[in-house]
Amino acid sequence: MTGQRTIARLSTHVLDTVLGRPAAGVPAVLEQLGPDGDHVTVGHGTTDADGRIAELNRQPLGPGEYRIVLGTAGYYADRHGSVFFPSISVQVLLDGAREHYHVPVLISTFSYSTYLGS
Q1: CATH of region 9-112, choose from 3.40.190.10, 3.90.650.10, 3.40.30.10, 2.60.40.180
Q2: Is the pTM of this model over 0.85?
Q3: Which residues are known binding-site members for substrate?
């Protein structure tokens, strides 16, 4: 594919829409998915006070399929007293057209949504 390049950075931002504030202290793992269904961990981090992880990957990424797994059980138990989603997985296909991909995740007690940010 023309225009593909190395992906320098994959970031995320987790926002708690019930409380109307960033979700701090949420651990995340970035996995690369292979064509055989296997996955390899290629990065990790924990959301800061603003709910952000500025760079999940430790090394540049190539185009491909990736999964961000947010460990939300502890966050929900501490802030909301119950857990419906103990983890949230967001699977994306990065085509290499950008140097930076930003994947925000909006969470609430019984739902979540995500989108491609800037």
Answers
A1: 2.60.40.180
A2: yes
A3: 13, 52, 115
